[in-house]
Amino acid sequence: MSLFATCPRGLEKFLFNEIRTLDGQKIKVHDGGVSFNGNQDSMYSLNLTSRYATRVLKRLSYGQFKSENDLYQAAMKVKWDDIFPVNKTIKVSTTSIKTSLKSIDFVTLKIKDAICDVFNQKYKQRPNVDVRDPDIKVHLFLEKNNYIIYIDSSGKPLYQREYRQKTIEAPLKENLAAGIITLSEWDFKVPLLDPMCGSGTLPIEAAMMALNIYPGMNRMFGFHHWYDFDKEVFHKIKVQLKEKQIEKELHIYASDIDRQAFNAASTNIDQMGLKPYIRINNRRFETSNAPNDHGVIVCNPPYGVRLDESEKLLESYQLWGSVLKKEFSGWRAYFISNDMAFPRGLRLSASKKTPLYNGALDCRLFEFVMVAGSNRKLKQEN
After folding, report:
1. pLDDT tens per residue across span 42-87
2. By 3-state DSSP, what share of the chain in percent is helix, strand and coil, each rounded to 5?
3. How far apart are CA 342 and CA 196, in angstroms?
């Protein structure tokens, strides 16, 4: 089968590597995703294990079109009634790039009509539409005069790991957080600190990586609603993945100035059973002390779009830069921000600026290598 896995832009190479380990064939990297040929096992496995993918889409039909009616006829040729039963709810979404179509909403409606007409012609019944929480998601991708019709094997986005019981304003998506951890090259041995942890996404993803806890083990997927869902094969894959989980000592630290964020992070960490691996505090970054003489900082600080307080943020940048120089010499720090002047605000020079997208926000992951100074006090881990 032909599959396409989407991901946040900037993480394609990591998704490529995941697919390669699952013996995917004809793997090709695109902007915002990776296409490949696979089978049922690899589709199940990628949904269960991927730390970077957003969705895994299965291609049903592709070709060229001139009009909306061509797309309707193409959708009519798909044997929808062989894929899922009529009592399942559906939703159709359309992505259009450089097409001459006048209305994307109208095209989306035509694809929905085609699916319903296939069922209606055979059973005199049609599936209901549910735009909020459908059983079946169909994606139409249009580029110039080319089309692809996909069915979504994932259902809810794969960054929804089902561990986030509590959240805060502007949380970082879990797959982007996993990408940041990977880009930091944290080796699971040195301490890792998130000094503005919000609801705890970065430290949780870090712990899951280190312990081989796979993201999709506690959730449902779109393919559960398909006729060809193989319960035995799916269960066998889950058992094999569960056996790969390991125990090890980790030194992960998290903190946040906001009490609500601290409570949310504590709840989410406890929900995942990660309390023994993550130490969390309710405090300002400016009052932090390094738990060791070397380690890695990962952080999603507040920025303009999230908090409309530019002057206050500039003051904070200077304080953060000061504490990094004073307390964290010997460490590497990674901050994601859409503020391209962020390093200047810290009064530090970034050694790397990796382009990433936080949703629609064009961001950079700034790397700062804090060189150990002569006045650095050696500190032992708490």
Report:
1. 999 999 999 999 999 999 999 999 999 999 999 999 999 999 999 9
2. 35, 25, 45
3. 16
Record: fold of 2-152: VC0802-like (3.30.2130)
Q: How do the domains of the chain map onto residue ranges?
A: 2-152, 174-213+248-369
* Closest CA relative to residue 166, chosen from 143, 192, 211, 200: 200
Structure token digits, residue 278: 């993550």
Cα 232 to Cα 62: distance, rounded to the nearest angstrom: 31
Report the distance separating Cα 8 and Cα 354, nearest Å. 13
Strand order in the sheet with 2-6: 25-30, 33-37, 2-6, 55-64, 146-152, 136-143, 90-97
**Amino acid occupying residue 345:** G
Q: How far apart are CA 213 and CA 14, in angstroms?
A: 17
d(CA 160, CA 151): 19
**What CATH architecture is 174-213+248-369?**
3-Layer(aba) Sandwich (3.40)
Is 206 in a helix, a strand, or coil? Answer: helix
Cα angle value 165/170/176 (rounded, 5°): 80
104-112, long-range: CB within 8 Å, 24+ apart, which pairs? 106/68, 107/68, 107/71, 107/140, 107/142, 108/140, 110/68, 110/69, 110/71, 110/72, 110/75, 111/71, 111/72, 111/75, 111/138, 111/140, 111/149
Q: Which two tokens stand for residue 52?
A: 């970077």
Count the residues in the chain.
382
Tell me the per-residue pLDDT of 15-46, one tens digit each, with 9 for 90 and over.
999 999 999 999 999 999 999 999 999 999 99
Query: pTM above 0.90?
Result: yes
Alpha-carbon gap, residue 280 to 266, rounded angstroms? 7
CB-CB contact of 182 with 13 (8 Å): no
Q: Are the C-beta atoms of 312 and 350 separated by less than 8 Å?
A: no
Q: How is residue 148 written in tokens?
A: 């692809």
Q: Which of 90, 283, 75, 327 is nearest to 191 (CA)?
A: 327
Phi-psi region of 246 (alpha: psi -120 to 50; beta: other; left: phi over 0): beta
